[in-house]
């Protein structure tokens, strides 16, 4: 075993007290009429009265707020539990499946439902933020602290939410669940019922706000996996293997006994074809299991427990990092690489893993974008694919097939990939616009429905795209070469990196302008040629300076090492 004495909980004493004890200290009950009006609306005024603040400052007093809210949460849970299916569906339409969790909170059901609810709530809150805000905050705590929500829901309502999901000092239900710190028996079901109740109440407040502001909530589109066949590289799991998986879980060195119910529930979900539930349950446990191994091999057992608000949790970011905070080498990758290869029982999975190319890493996505873009450009009307175009297309395919390490990518690499992807995206946009305009105008030309100015513009467009096509192909070659040498960025100092990023953003600005000029609304084809000419001069100037610096460096190395001549 990695742990000679496995802990009975992964919650620190302070966090354990907050979640499992503070909300149970006071014994009282609340009438349904106190927290819900006759019309079915939630009485926020009554709920917000339970929030406690410091005596000398307006800061939230999380512990006393949880103590005060505890009996209310219990009363709300008992109320929801007493409802019939029809009554529950009438008040909580989209959360019907959670009704059965409240009625029968067994095994990992409460944790699974809470993870679903917090994810849906966080996503929905981001949509609400965009009603009046611009850039949605990345972190949930920053989202809840925004003035935009104070304008929509009011400060007291936001303080209630913060007690449940807003801070490491709070119940912090979202983070302790999604990061795999809490066991199935440590989440009181009454907090799930309360958060479900609050979510419905937020919907009521939002409806009132939208009516007064004459606005409507627009939900952002969800991610959709369109190329599912690419992901089918691992072997299918039959009943025999799933039974073996259950046995392995109970014997595994990285699975704490308190976490076994999550693994069993995940396997059951897989057997029932509830694959989303399976993934939701497994992700936190994967992190928790790796945390067990991480703390063992790096000899830091205290990091297995939830951190206090004054320090950071040990999460995937640190577990998968190349170095520890003290700059020592993280032993996890070394142990995983060596020990995994020693066991014959995992040879099949290791073969699959070795042949697996990450599908969702930004580098992989950029490769796909480049290949889709060159395919689009070489299909332009009036420009048959010649020998040179075939060579360029083949070159890009060859370059994109080269393996690029995606593990331990520093921020500078990821920032650069973002810019390269933006360039590729806009290149494809330009190509699609050119194809669309060409086809439309050609049809109008044949039908003789173009006016005099439109005919002249059509001729200018045909001349321009013959010049534009090779330039876009050049841009694709440039960003592909930058991609294949992406790890060279780590050798640049801060000034060199900033200049390099400035160069890439110059190309991005050029392509963004092309998107505007080639749009059906603008049709500025002569201006496109002028813009392209000026941009090419700037690109050549930068590349010329880079080449000069490379030659100077080579000359310097030669002079310093005369013996190598």
UniProtKB/TrEMBL annotation:
Ranges annotated as spanning the membrane: 467-489
InterPro entries (UniProt xref): DUF4209 (IPR025209), ERMARD (IPR039635)
Domain DUF4209: residue ranges: 121-201
Keywords: Membrane, Transmembrane, Transmembrane helix
UniProt cross-references to Pfam families, sorted A to Z: DUF4209
Name this protein carries in UniProt: Transmembrane protein
